[in-house]
Amino acid sequence: xxxxxxxxxxxxxxxxxxxxxxxxxxxxxxxxxxxxxxxxxxxxxxxxxxxxxxxxxxxxxxxxxxxxxxxxxxxxxxxxxxxxxxxxxxxxxxxxxxxxxxxxxxxxxxxxxxxxxxxxxxxxxxxxxxxxxxxxxxxxxxxxxxxxxxxxxxxxxxxxxxxxxxxxxxxxxxxxxxxxxxxxxxxxxxxxxxxxxxxxxxxxxxxxxxxxxxxxxxxxxxxxxxxxxxxxxxxxxxxxxxxxxxxxxxxxxxxxxxxxxxxxxxxxxxxxxxxxxxxxxxxxxxxxxxxxxxxxxxxxxxxxxxxxxxxxxxxxxxxxxxxxxxxxxxxxxxxxxxxxxxxxxxxxxxxxxxxxxxxxxxxxxxxxxxxxxxxxxxxxxxxxxxxxxxxxxxxxxxxxxxxxxxxxxxxxxxxxxxxxxxxxxxxxxxxxxxxxxxxxxxxxxxxxxxxxxxxxxxxxxxxxxxxxxxxxxxxxxxxxxxxxxxxxxxxxxxxxxxxxxxxxxxxxxxxxxxxxxxxxxxxxxxxxxxxxxxxxxxxxxxxxxxxxxxxxxxxxxxxxxxxxxxxxxxxxxxxxxxxxxxxxxxxxxxxxxxxxxxxxxxxxxxxxxxxxxxxxxxxxxxxxxxxxxxxxxxxxxxxxxxxxxxxxxxxxxxxx
Length: 656
Ligand code: SF4
What we know:
Layout: H1 5-12, E1 38-44, H2 48-51, H3 55-65, E2 70-76, H4 80-89, E3 107-111, H5 118-127, E4 143-147, E5 163-165, H6 172-185, H7 192-200, E6 206-207, E7 212-216, E8 222-227, E9 236-237, E10 265-268, E11 270-271, H8 281-285, E12 290-291, H9 294-308, E13 312-316, H10 326-334, E14 344-346, H11 354-363, E15 371-376, H12 380-386, H13 392-404, E16 409-416, H14 423-441, E17 448-455, H15 472-487, E18 492-496, H16 499-509, H17 516-524, H18 538-547, H19 552-556, E19 571-572, H20 577-588, H21 648-655
Helix pairs in contact: 1-4, 5-17, 6-7, 9-10, 11-13, 13-14, 14-15, 17-18
The structure holds iron/sulfur cluster (SF4).
């Protein structure tokens, strides 16, 4: 096992933030590579600051290093200053743990959380000294893999990835490891790469793009995606772990040596979300809801704080205030005598209601810096379309409670460019924000309301996957309307996401394999770190699309008909396609859909397809009025008990 450290070290003083590259964090591992063991290089294709806190990567890092037949190290995309040094000096991509060259690993496994990192994936593969195209790789090269939310449509990266894992990674990494271990034991002989990929395709949840033939119709849309061999599944189902309690990871969260985002202890309290926000891919693809037992949350918090020395813990999920018994859990942390009253708790995803503010008041006694709410749209009509059923009273109640409890800053998240959005809806954002400023003025002279507006990008496996994204001009016009109006409101600050970046994100999120050469050209022309405004270049993307005879408008702004084969239709997030279509029709009819945790199941497919039901820690719906959903939970429709049944044997049976 070699190391590039002696080559690298003399250059670190000359690059920005050298701590990005040295490893040695609390929680870092320097695993020995046992004979025959499968070595994984877990790679986040963005900077260390963004990638280090990624929980998915940290979970797999620990699980793999606990196995006798595997070891795992980490790497992150080197910033452009170090990349220039590496290319000049011939230093390959390396792990931050032992500085072992990336090409010595058996698997380069990427976490794909954002489309704009795709060119960084190619750059990392190239820096590793591995051919960027899968077809050019030989048995001695690592397998290039990906997991994470973007893999629900990995087609734009199909030319570059050897295999892709859909869904929860905790169990499937073991099965993948075993297949690769056997391949290594057989000597990785000439021509054996196809064989290991065929074997990986047999693992439930693993998709091997090269084993599928894609044909296109005269209309330009995908006509069919067909397995090239009879033993390759026609459809790849995502993996779902049934019981989060069996996976109390990370146990040894990494504590960075330099500043990173989310620099605190993070404890995942549940996975999945059934609120049914129609724009939210994470909510759809991670169903069903699986709660961690409250007692385990408490233990993970206590142990984690003790081990890391952090004085802040985030209870993470897609909607943490919905966690059963959240008040008691929070109380237990804040009042723990071992913490001496010094620990603060953050709930990164606040629900919009006064109940949530009550919890926030309880936990942020010392640091009342700011509270964030996400009403997402400016009018009730629009919120019915997107199924974010927050009434204005919910929002105003929450904001009033926040200012009344001493907060001075409130941040509101909105989307523009949503299906059927009119100017009245767009301007409704201003109206809500302005009213929040007024509410704040009743409590403080120094009110600050920040409205952050993002351009909506439709994502696969959501009801909006058929919607034609707003054009760049339309998004810019809408943001212009908001900017003009916001100027007149003292105390209101407006920020917005660059619509040009939304355009490229839209292109990649619903693109097909024909975008592979486009991504490659953008990368070859220097288009890395496209997530970063100082590096992003729309011109590079438009030129590459034109050079390959592809039409941006067709890919991004076109509404798809129901019968069109979507590039990801041969993959499955567990959701029935007809459920998603019906939900899309309901959206257009402005009909909301309640949270199925507290109302009868409407069979979206997420639980039924896997033979499991929601797993919650308590059968009692969380307290707090409408829960910010607009639902009247006192109606007869409401179920009085929530299913807490777990049939993991059914789960195993269903997916095999
Ligand atoms: S299958 Fe039913 S209970 Fe499960 S997430 Fe879908 S609607 Fe909810």
